[in-house]
Design a protein that fits this description.
With about 350 residues, the protein is an alpha/beta fold. The chain is built from twelve helices and 17 strands. Strand 13, helix 9 and strand 14 form a beta-alpha-beta unit.
Amino acid sequence: MSAIPEKMRGLLKSKPEKSYDLEELPVPKPESGELLVKVLRASICGSDVMLYNWGEAAQIIATIPFTPGHECVAEIIGVGADVGPEFSIGKRVCCENHYYCGQCYQCKHGEPHICQHLSQYGHGKGTIHGGCSQYSIIPAKYAYLLKTDLENDKACLLEPFGVAHQACEALEPHGDTVLVQGCGPIGIFCVALCRHMGATKIIATDIVDDKLELARHFGANVLVNGMKENLLDAVLRETGGDGVGRLVEASGVAPMLNNCFKLLRKGGGIVVVGLPKAPLHVENPMPDIVFKSLTLRTVHGRKIFSTWEKSEAILSSGEIDISPVISHRFPLTQYEDAFKALFSGEACKIILDPQT
């Protein structure tokens, strides 16, 4: 293996303003319990867009300074003291970016992914490090060791795919009609996973036809462009007037979440995975929620590490091929072009190569 350099390129958010700076940074050294990794791929998430713009929502989920990039795959090139022998040089890892404390109620009861004192890789919470740099530090306890030869681009997307997997697992779509609201990457992954988990009919809705066509590729039976067709009318038509049995809210648009309860049949279930940035308000809570005996779940992150293992097994087996979700690839040095592509609406999932 080549010598580890003293300096590296990396994105840095050091000021409360839009965008990032591409900086020359010192290559960090692993301390006890830590891995030094060479980042092979990083991808841009919807929350990275919030962090780029640095609005009110970003200031809730992140702390300056930090390097962004919580979705990544990397190669171990250095190991600190007190790290287990399984983390050997040359092995590949992904980062479980929910850094849990191990001491709170959730951590002690098998739910470290929703730790009360959550820190986050790529967000400046408890660590300044992130995947949008040539090298990075990941504590070994949060490193997921890849078990297969899954391609780097797909391995990089295990983190968001895992969010969708946990959402669909909670939804239990088998044998039911599912509506997926929002066909960004998470919504598309949910379409694919609901099909994989045995949904009988999948309705996908968005306002961009290209995204809907991608949803069709991954298994959606019915496409509804909300700018051209009334969603409630379409749902009732496709369900014989009953409403859908299962609903995935992946748009993150508050009015979509506000209005989705009327789309569910009595006894139905909804999982919220999108991130609404405005207050929620339900016009008719008694007939649309209470009298329907609905089950509402929300999802944050992935179960550690069972969701990772299930997700890698699905992708490495080829049961679901997520390659079509990757619309663009850029070297890290062209990060501004990458964000422009995302803001333009023409991109789905963007992969960055931190080494170029």
